[in-house]
Amino acid sequence: MTTTAVPDSTTGWRATGVAELAPAELERIHAWWRAANFLSVGQIYLLDNPLLREPLTRDHVKPRLLGHWGTTPGLNFLYAHLNRAIKERQQKTIYITGPGHGGPGLVASAYLDGTYSEVYSDITEDTEGVKRLFRQFSFPGGIPSHVAPETPGSIHEGGELGYSLSHAYGAAFDNPDLMVAAVVGDGEAETGPLATSWHSNKFVNPAQDGVVLPILHLNGYKIANPTVLARISRPELNDLMVGYGHKPYFFDGGYDESEPPLETHRRFAALLDEVLDEIAAIKARAAGGDLSRPMWPMIVFRTPKGWSGPAEIDGKKTTGSWRAHQVPLASARDTDEHLSVLEKWLRSYRPEELFDADGRVLPEITGLAPEGALRMSANPHANGGLLLKDLRLPDFRRYAVDVPAPGGSTSEAPRVLGQWLTDVIRLNPDNFRIFGPDETASNRLQAVYDVTDKQWNAEYIGPEVDEHMARAGRVMEMLSEHQVQGWLEGYLLTGRHGLLTSYEAFIHIVDSMFNQHAKWLKVTNDIPWRRPIASLNYLLSSHVWRQDHNGFSHQDPGFIDHVVNKKAEIVRVYLPPDANTLLSTYDHCLRSRQYVNVVVAGKQPAPNFLDMETAVEHCTRGLGIWEWAGTETAGEKPDVVLGCAGDVPTLEVLAAADILRRELPDLKVRVVNVVDLMRLQDATEHPHGLTDSEFNGLFTSDRPVVFAYHGYPWLIHRLTYRRAGHGHWHVRGYKEEGTTTTPFDMVMLNDLDRYHLVIDVIDRVPSLGSAQAGLRQRMQDARLRARAWTREHGDDIPEVRDWVWPDAQDLADGDQVGATLGTGGDNE
Amino acid sequence: MTTTAVPDSTTGWRATGVAELAPAELERIHAWWRAANFLSVGQIYLLDNPLLREPLTRDHVKPRLLGHWGTTPGLNFLYAHLNRAIKERQQKTIYITGPGHGGPGLVASAYLDGTYSEVYSDITEDTEGVKRLFRQFSFPGGIPSHVAPETPGSIHEGGELGYSLSHAYGAAFDNPDLMVAAVVGDGEAETGPLATSWHSNKFVNPAQDGVVLPILHLNGYKIANPTVLARISRPELNDLMVGYGHKPYFFDGGYDESEPPLETHRRFAALLDEVLDEIAAIKARAAGGDLSRPMWPMIVFRTPKGWSGPAEIDGKKTTGSWRAHQVPLASARDTDEHLSVLEKWLRSYRPEELFDADGRVLPEITGLAPEGALRMSANPHANGGLLLKDLRLPDFRRYAVDVPAPGGSTSEAPRVLGQWLTDVIRLNPDNFRIFGPDETASNRLQAVYDVTDKQWNAEYIGPEVDEHMARAGRVMEMLSEHQVQGWLEGYLLTGRHGLLTSYEAFIHIVDSMFNQHAKWLKVTNDIPWRRPIASLNYLLSSHVWRQDHNGFSHQDPGFIDHVVNKKAEIVRVYLPPDANTLLSTYDHCLRSRQYVNVVVAGKQPAPNFLDMETAVEHCTRGLGIWEWAGTETAGEKPDVVLGCAGDVPTLEVLAAADILRRELPDLKVRVVNVVDLMRLQDATEHPHGLTDSEFNGLFTSDRPVVFAYHGYPWLIHRLTYRRAGHGHWHVRGYKEEGTTTTPFDMVMLNDLDRYHLVIDVIDRVPSLGSAQAGLRQRMQDARLRARAWTREHGDDIPEVRDWVWPDAQDLADGDQVGATLGTGGDNE
């Protein structure tokens, strides 16, 4: 990637009027389009004879014909016309390809504007380069058939459909000079995430943010069906777009065979100028202080699927039908008939007029593109790492809660984090945002509203209900996990920072989006010209152990399992047990690059265990022995190890340790807390993994380990099963046994409670067993008592609810339990 | 649940004109609404003194205040009015509660119409019953705060939002006499799945299907924000609904304080009559043969959030704001001020006018409801198992492919399945549908188009492009996994059958929907009055090992992992290795109840291994030794076990077994194939699990097992880690190492290929090891050769691509390889 400086910010948003294009200019646009189409078809079909300088033979055709043609010519047409307009207006623009299948088109366009050869030096601008360009496409060891990280200018991978507009808006936020031309496929438009993402326009600030120009590519067909939006009346489609808050401009091209191509180009160029002038006018009004939501223009681009391809194949209508979706000539290598159609099709673009003798595209054609970083394929916003600046992070230690003794104070950990985030926002006013599905306050980050608001550009009613809402703000909330994740991804991919807060119980909604983003990160790690971007940070603050308001109806802790399936170099999972560890963890997350960081931290009031100094040490190690909680003798192995990961499991393990020290004072108990889940893995499997000797030093290789875990227990087995001592591990975790409305009832339902953990210890330490049948029975009784109390009173039994770690109790007996940071409403 | 017969199908769709309701009838509607609201508020707050027959004290208030008030009064209002209209028109109707938070409202309504006490005999219709009704709500051991399986009349669980309309349409398909009143929350309306589900109206046949009446509950607020649709202009909202294909009717209620309540009721009743008459007219036109898509009416129901609750609390506007979302009086037990507001609020419904001396709601109020199965809470469609009929299934053995020897024929397995499904459709013309996101043909089920079509009621262009599309058809395709899964769920929950075909690579899109449905099934297993419904069947036919067209950009095989996290009694995972086993498996799936069956079967041409008789035996066992593939000596333990699960892994294991029998003829190899993945688990953990002795009989407890698996390898470890021999297991599977465009290249990338499996055997069988360094080297060389060939030719090396099992080769040498069932285009 060239590191050409970003164009001066005074460029852009020029109103030029509708240009009267000279025939030569129209010819140039048409030539670019033919060249792009030729290069696209060549990629799909040709192994050799790239410029058709000899008659096409079967051997020139690839043995496996893969890829998609249908959407490609439309994408190429738009790219050509945008080039003309960008050059004229010097308008910084990136191009989002909703129809990701159109990979060959975007590769062809990047090749034509020169970017491709700049970033891939072996794809030269000559016959040999064209041959390599063709051959590599959807070929073993080559490039994907979809728009991909390998495609210069892209921040939006093909594959799963539905996120083009969300990504586009994410890219536009805080980029006031950037236009994002977002092509939406009419197939993609049927997906849920895309259908709601049109409403993104209610969240745009017309002065501070860039402009998204949605272009609905209405080519009419999916794999095997017409599209819904192509089969409703034009008035209905118009109403739909107006209802979404847009002013639609309709363009029909390619259907009227009597229209000369240059006239089609002239009409579209005029329409594009009209649209861009309207955008410039909106921008001018915004610059003048009118920040109200305009009806942003959008284009309905109705052209035939497979436009310019063979009208019929084997007697069946192909262009303008779903039959053009993929590879229309499946037998081009096998039958002379198909081969001949292919040759005719390729020659219809008149390659002899497009390439010089060396196989270089004629400069008068490539000259359509703007220069340098104004080229859409070279725009640095589409390689966000180029623009990424470190966040200015306030010292998180200053936000520490006071922990006079373990358990000696109580916090809602995310509320503490919120105070630090407030200053993160203050210090980084234009490159950091918080995203969430209507849950930022519910997840206890409301301190941020001291310095910012929720950005909202729909109607206002009045201050008595419209709290913390403004036309500019750092918090982005809409009730769609898809939407907010898509926005955040677009924001990160263009070189900014952010986090997403959500309920753990519903984060599975974006499982597939996580997959796509993780894949993007993994692939970009191997693309030298792609610079690292900020990590995608989750804060899951309403977790499955405290579903008080939502007992029974919420989901599971399996997002962690889903995440851990991805490559180790991409994913991190943190389970900070209290407020100070959460602060330390999040500071680390916001400094990191190219990861997906999943942080799970409950929002309910909970004891703090570590003062800041200890918390930093603990988080730096990622896991460690809590000596103060155990009863070991220095230099001797413990009798049993109590492990814990997650805030609720940690609380129960400490309560169990407390029981054990009182009931079995001679038992040597070690307590190990895990913050960084990946530390449990083998060093050979994850960069954060422990070596065997480190691992055995913590957990021993031969003592029983009773491990209380936040999620499904088998994940802990998975992470540890290669360890020597794994046979001695006994893991308690989430069991899908149902949920309930009081915290201790919930842990009891899943056998993760303190009493059950003590029973586990008795059952697993050989020296206890039947000797402690009495204690075992008392633990059973305590459970039954707690269950009965809860059923009777609707709340947890006081001996459980009010339990504190003994050191904190001593403190309380002497003076007072450390101050509780205010707790507020329990929203959902 | 009463088993009252379904009302005669001649009921319904009556046009009555706008009723002139007598004041007494309006009073009755208002009294029902007050009673429902009183019972709702009581559930949220009261532990005792349910009818306020004494002054309210703090002790009467629950210690933990949980639940949601905001949406409830609107839901109650609609329920009351629908009662009136249903009774008048004898219109079979079910009620879908999009705002699932409104649990108390639906429980209250079911209590008022008598259903609740019928299904829960301890919730009696007297003071004690009301007390128990209140106490159980969101209480440990009680009922959820959301609409749930426990709620009579519901097929739509609260919790995750977004599927109310999809479920509603699923319920309406093939139920021509049923109206589905679907209340859509304006929060829910922001989700992606809901935003696209409005387009469901393009898939309705107005004669053969029922009617969905969407009611957008525009109460203006979410947890902490206004809703988007409440903050766009009315013309914009009108356009949006028209653009979605609806004729919107707007109702505003509760904002004009000068309007008497009865006038509000009169206006809504009139509007509802107008809407229902319009529906009746559409139905009459359809009965007369006009099947074209009408603009179906829908209602925008704009009323204040928390309507009828306290206007202000603590000096802040509450009713008509987001502050009414959850529990408006959080301190009702803690402060006299809140307690007094609560009492005033409860008394505002004048309970003394609603209940008789025994605490029974006055019969003149409950008389508003229709009778028997016409009550929305008692409608048997909302307890689909009551209506479920077994499918008539043709004998799948008749569709068997001929397998003269293992590997002796080739099929695209789903194409074979499609022929059987064709007759399933023929035999079950009105209670079986196939759902998919535009992939039914791509997944090779196109034989079904011999007997049916894709149902489509948007515009038609002409037969040259609109193949297999009609206003009535058994195949439902829209490019939204959310939509088609939601439709299928609604169809199943109302007592019908179906399956969903999708690409494995994208099925993570519905992870959270699977979660919700699995939870529903699990909970209903414990609700005696809920009858079992047909299983939700997936057919994932474009799997991760054959991403030819989509190399690099598609996702992973992790859906299986996600599914296996759920309770064993709910989930089944099948990996049939060929066509006959797929037939046998699917026959089993379509006969089953209350499961989620995940079947993964590749769509590419692949060898058949088992004739039908053997396939049935194999599938009945779920796994077994393939003696013909091994080289054991009877009565002796094998030296090594090659295990496989999945079609591609099975092929590679057989190819490895072939190499081993040629290269190491003395090695005793056993081949075990697994169809039913759950068989690997312990019998104590899954109903399908093997006992240890069965397991050891297959895999031994001390011989090396090299296991080739379709998905992430650690799942096999998870399923088997408690087995005695697990330390000897070595699993190969999907490694996230990237994807490519040729099949063998793909398996090599993941070290699952035949050569690597042979190396695994050499490395793990003690008697081989260094003695076979030569063979090991030749395997390495073969891999390098295959890789180089692929990179050079873009296709797999012939020795791999054309390999067949030796018995088939013998057959070929003698005569011919068995006929290949036609293979067609490779669509995506």
UniProtKB/TrEMBL annotation, chains A, B:
All copies of domain Xylulose 5-phosphate/Fructose 6-phosphate phosphoketolase N-terminal, residue ranges: 22-386
EC number, UniProt record: 4.1.2.-
PROSITE patterns given in the database record: PHOSPHOKETOLASE_1 (PS60002)
Cofactor(s) this protein cannot do without: thiamine diphosphate
Ranges where the Xylulose 5-phosphate/Fructose 6-phosphate phosphoketolase C-terminal domain occurs: 603-805
Enzyme class: lyase
UniProt keywords, alphabetically: Lyase, Thiamine pyrophosphate
Superkingdom, taxonomy of origin: Bacteria
CDD domains referenced in this protein's UniProt entry, alphabetically: TPP_PK
Pfam families in the cross-refs: XFP, XFP_C, XFP_N
GO molecular function terms listed in the Swiss-Prot or TrEMBL record: aldehyde-lyase activity; magnesium ion binding
The family this protein is said to belong to: Belongs to the XFP family.
NCBIfam families associated with the record: PRK05261.1-2, PRK05261.1-4, PRK05261.1-6
Protein name (Swiss-Prot/TrEMBL): Probable phosphoketolase
